[in-house]
Design a protein that fits this description.
The protein is α/β, with parallel strands linked by helices and 226 residues long. The protein folds into 2 domains: 1-85 and 161-226, Rossmann fold (3-Layer(aba) Sandwich); 94-160, no CATH class. The chain has helices at residues 46-54, 79-83, 101-111, 116-129, 145-156, 175-190, 202-206; strands spanning 7-15, 21-30, 35-39, 61-66, 69-70, 86-89, 163-167, 194-199, 211-216, 219-224. Helix 3 (101-111) packs across helix 4 and helix 5 packs parallel to helix 6 (175-190). It is globular, with a radius of gyration of 17 Å. The protein starts with 6 loop residues before the first strand and ends with a strand. Bound molecules: adenosine-5'-diphosphate (ADP) and magnesium ion (MG). The site of adenosine-5'-diphosphate has 13 residues, from helix 1. Adenosine-5'-diphosphate (ADP) is lined by residues 16, 18, 20, 22, 40, 42-48, 198.
Length: 226
């Protein structure tokens, strides 16, 4: 018998309040440890697919399950329990401009209730993990686009999550920096993290032989195994 999928979407429809269809009957299974790219043009539904998992968006119809648990069963009250299981690197996330790289990550750790001691222990490890330790004292305005994105990914790793959601992590990067970011995500995946990446950067994706789910107007058009 096949293992229960880690993530499962069952006939999911999302209709936004303005009547726009975000997703139009998506069914998809993802196993633990997979690396999946969601590809499609702007408006195809990539962010909606990720936001359903982090419950930033509630679906109207169908089911979304994580590790067997139906996500609509999580009340607002215990959403933090759900979010501890995942790291989210959102689309267009801005780092706090008046805080250094070190402080940006420390701030995120403090925000989830870690002690000062844990912060001092974890921040250097996270910065090393995403390869920005040498930029710890720099402010966001002093970083390259690729470095900024590394810090955003670092912020998403504060809870050592088994699942990482990255929305357009290479949005504003040139080809070389994009490839570096994807390599970082692939490394995290190789060490066991399930990674879902929304992107329209097909040339970069094609260099990594990973599963690619193509979305078009809220529907899955193709699902190409890695
Ligand atoms: N909060 C929202 N309110 C209304 N429409 C939205 C909202 N978020 C997304 N949409 C619409 O839903 C569709 C899918 O959006 P999205 O998931 O953000 O696509 P993508 O990430 O692939 O660009 C688009 O038509 C978009 O305009
Ligand atoms: Mg998007």
């Amino acid at each position: 018998m096949p293992a229960r999928p880690y993530i499962e979407y069952r006939d999911v429809h999302v209709v936004y309040s303005n009547g726009v269809k975000g997703l139009d009957g998506v069914s998809l299974q993802i196993q633990r440890g997979e690396f999946v790219f969601f590809v499609g043009e702007t408006g195809a539904g990539k962010s909606t697919l990720l936001k359903l998992l982090s419950r930033e968006e509630h679906h109207c119809e169908g089911e979304v399950r994580l590790d067997g648990q139906e996500l609509s069963d999580f009340s607002e009250y215990n959403l933090h329990r759900l979010r501890r299981q995942m790291g989210v690197a959102p689309q267009d996330y801005d780092l706090l401009p008046n805080k250094t790289v070190w402080e940006n990550v420390a701030y995120a750790l403090r925000a989830v209730g870690r002690s000062r001691r844990e912060v001092f222990d974890r921040v250097p490890k996270i910065l090393l993990q995403v390869n920005v330790a040498h930029r710890a004292d720099a402010f966001p305005s002093q970083l390259s686009g690729g470095e900024k994105q590394r810090v955003v990914i670092g912020r998403a790793l504060i809870n050592e999550p088994p699942l990482l959601l990255a929305d357009e992590p290479t949005g504003n990067l040139d080809a070389a920096q994009s490839e570096e970011i994807m390599r970082l995500l692939a490394d995290l995946n190789a060490r066991g993290t399930t990674v879902l990446v929304a992107s329209h950067d097909l040339p970069t994706m094609e260099k990594f032989s990973k599963r690619i789910v193509c979305l078009e107007r809220g529907k899955i058009k193709e699902d190409l195994g890695g």
